[in-house]
Amino acid sequence: MSDMNKNQKLLEVNDLHVSFFTPAGEVKAVGGISYSLNYGEVMGVVGESGSGKSQEAYSIMGLLQSPGRVTGGSIIFEGQDVLKFSKEEMTSFRGNRVSMIFQNPMTCLNPVYTVGNQLVEALHAHDKAVSRNEARQRAMEMMEMVGINNVEKRMKQYPHEFSGGMRQRVMIAMGLICNPRLLIADEPTTALDVTIQAQILELMKDIQKKTKMGIIFITHNLGVVADICDKVSVMYAGKIVEQGPVDAIFYRAGHPYTLGLLRSMPRVDAESYERLVPIEGTPVDMLNPPEGCPFAPRCERCMKICLKKMPPYVELGENHRSACWLRVQEKYSKEENGYEQ
C-alpha cells in the first residue's frame, strides 16, 4: 500500500440515484449525489434518519434489498464501475476490497458460533488459499490489534460473553481482517456509551493511519465527525446539501440545514449557558418530495424560489460547496459589486 496517498482517488460516486419501488409509489432514497474519496482519507456522512446515508453505502457494497435498486449514476472504485460487477465479482469485492461495520454488533454476530470461528470464516470465505491455522493466527492478531486482551480465551467465547464495546471491536476486526482498501462504518458507535465510543474512535484512527485505507464514516454525531474526519458530506432528503473540509463545515457552514445541525449540538467551549435550538418541522415525505430545495419547508430563511427549484452548488471555498439559494444570491451580489471576478 506504499503507493497510496491522499492525492489518489480510491472511490468516485457520480450522480447516484437509489429508489425503492413500493405499492404506495417510488421512494427516491438517494437523489443524484456525487463525491470522491482518496486513499487514506476519512469522509463523514451526516444527516438525520431517512436522509439516505445508509442506502448510498449499501449501494457501494451491493447490499440494497428489494424493492430498492440503483436507478442511475456510477460507483467507480479503483477505476472499475462497481454497478457493472457480476455476482461473483461482487462477492469477491466485498470483504477483500471493501468492508462494512454495521450499527448493532449483536445483530451482526451469530449467537451460536464462537467469535473466533466467525473471524476465521470471514477470512477463509475470501481467501481459500489460507489454511485454518493461518486464518486462526490472523484472527488472533486482529483481535489484539483492536485492543482485545487474552485472545486465546476470547476466541472460544460466544458474542453474548462480550460487552457492547468488545463486540464492536470484534466487528471492526472482522471488517479489517482481509485488509480492505475502503471501510464503511455505518454509525458504529451509536449503541455505545461515550467512554467506549471515544476508545473505538481512537482505535479506528490508529488503524487508519497504519493501513492507509479510506473510511466513509456515517453518523448523526457531529462531535464524532470533528474528531475523526478529513471532510464532510451533509445529506438531507437523499441529496448532499453541503460538502467540504471538516474545518470549513464547522466554522464556515453555508447551508441552513448544516447550521441547524450545529446549533442543535451542545458545545463544550461555550463561555456561558446556551439553549440548544432544534430544527423545527418534520422530515420530508420521500414519496412526495418538494419540487425545490428539500429543506425549504423547514428553513426559517425560505424564499419563493426555494419552493420551486433545486438550487445549484455554489463554491464557498477550496473543495467547499453548498446547494442553497441564499449562497447563490450572495454570489451574484458580490459579482455585481465587484468583489469577485
Automatic annotation (TrEMBL):
<comment type="similarity">
    <text>Belongs to the ABC transporter superfamily.</text>
</comment>
<dbReference type="InterPro" id="IPR027417">
    <property type="entry name" value="P-loop_NTPase"/>
</dbReference>
<dbReference type="GO" id="GO:0005524">
    <property type="term" value="F:ATP binding"/>
</dbReference>
<keyword id="KW-0547">Nucleotide-binding</keyword>
<dbReference type="InterPro" id="IPR003593">
    <property type="entry name" value="AAA+_ATPase"/>
</dbReference>
<keyword id="KW-0067">ATP-binding</keyword>
<feature type="domain" description="ABC transporter">
    <location>
        <begin position="11"/>
        <end position="262"/>
    </location>
</feature>
<dbReference type="GO" id="GO:0015833">
    <property type="term" value="P:peptide transport"/>
</dbReference>
<keyword id="KW-0472">Membrane</keyword>
<dbReference type="InterPro" id="IPR013563">
    <property type="entry name" value="Oligopep_ABC_C"/>
</dbReference>
<dbReference type="InterPro" id="IPR003439">
    <property type="entry name" value="ABC_transporter-like_ATP-bd"/>
</dbReference>
<protein>
    <submittedName>
        <fullName>ABC transporter ATP-binding protein</fullName>
    </submittedName>
</protein>
<dbReference type="InterPro" id="IPR017871">
    <property type="entry name" value="ABC_transporter-like_CS"/>
</dbReference>
<dbReference type="Pfam" id="PF08352">
    <property type="entry name" value="oligo_HPY"/>
</dbReference>
<dbReference type="GO" id="GO:0016887">
    <property type="term" value="F:ATP hydrolysis activity"/>
</dbReference>
<dbReference type="GO" id="GO:0005886">
    <property type="term" value="C:plasma membrane"/>
</dbReference>
<keyword id="KW-0813">Transport</keyword>
<dbReference type="InterPro" id="IPR050388">
    <property type="entry name" value="ABC_Ni/Peptide_Import"/>
</dbReference>
<dbReference type="Pfam" id="PF00005">
    <property type="entry name" value="ABC_tran"/>
</dbReference>
<keyword id="KW-1003">Cell membrane</keyword>
